Amino acid sequence: MNLRSFQDADELVADYLSALLKPAPSSLVEPPPKSHAAPQARAAVPLTATPESMSAESASRYLLCEAAGVRLALPMGEVRHMVPLPPLRPEPGDPDICLGHWRHPGGEARVIDLAALLAPDMAGAEADTLLLLHDRTWALACTVYEESVVLDAEGIAWRTPTQSRPWLVGMMRELRCGVIDVPALIHSFRTLAGEAP
């Protein structure tokens, strides 16, 4: 792929996200409630596959989620656990996008409001699922689709690294979803929390 193709892909992803994240006219939209409890019960689902043990097919398997009206794909190997979103309360010193902390058998994770990360004016948008990320110290609050999907890398319009949302590495045209680099996302969280060098 030449430099022009990379630039085109980057512009395509940026334009797509800009269109999705444009705020709706305020007269038509009521602000979402600030409750972060799950609207309906969902069974806990352990996700125990590791990148080392995944086959070529499962290495390209992604979990589809949505936040702030934007569909995103996260590699299954980067998600450790999925549970209904519990009631949460932020703690002093947490970043603004942090909904609170969730204790799990391996420790504690800060839960990030994925909608607020994508569009600050959408903070508190409906979310029903908590996704514990691979490092087990960060989790995402979002809405998750029931089935995972296999994405063909050739069908993804890859972005060149940018300062703006470096964790958004591409867009899957067919499914109209952004593709997330979870380690880069965690690095962004650590930077927001003042932990990254």
List the helices and strands and how they pair.
Elements: H1 3-21, E1 45-46, H2 56-59, E2 61-67, E3 70-75, E4 79-84, E5 98-104, E6 107-113, H3 114-118, E7 129-133, E8 138-150, E9 156-158, E10 168-172, E11 177-180, H4 182-192
Parallel strand pairs: 3-11, 6-8
Antiparallel strand pairs: 1-4, 2-3, 2-8, 4-7, 5-6, 7-8, 9-10, 10-11
Structural write-up:
By secondary structure, the protein is of the alpha+beta class. The chain contains four helices and eleven strands; from the N terminus they run αβαβββββαβββββα. Strands 1, 2, 3, 4, 5, 6, 7, 8, 9, 10 and 11 form an eleven-stranded mixed beta sheet that branches. A hairpin with a 2-residue loop joins strand 5 (98-104) and strand 6 (107-113). The protein is globular, with a radius of gyration of 17 Å. Mean pLDDT is 76; it is low at 21-59.
Flag low-confidence runs: 21-59
Count every beta strand, where a strand is a DSSP E run of 2 or more residues: 11
How large, in whole angstroms, is the Cα Rg?
A: 17 Å
Secondary-structure class: alpha+beta
Biggest sheet descriptor? 11 strands, mixed
Q: Could you tell me the mean pLDDT?
A: 76
Q: Per DSSP, what share of the residues sits in E-state strands of 2 or more residues? A: 25-35%
How would you spell out the order of helices and strands? HEHEEEEEHEEEEEH
Write down the overall geometry: globular
The first-to-last residue Cα distance is 33 Å
Indicate the percent of residues in helices: 10-25%
- The number of helical runs is 4
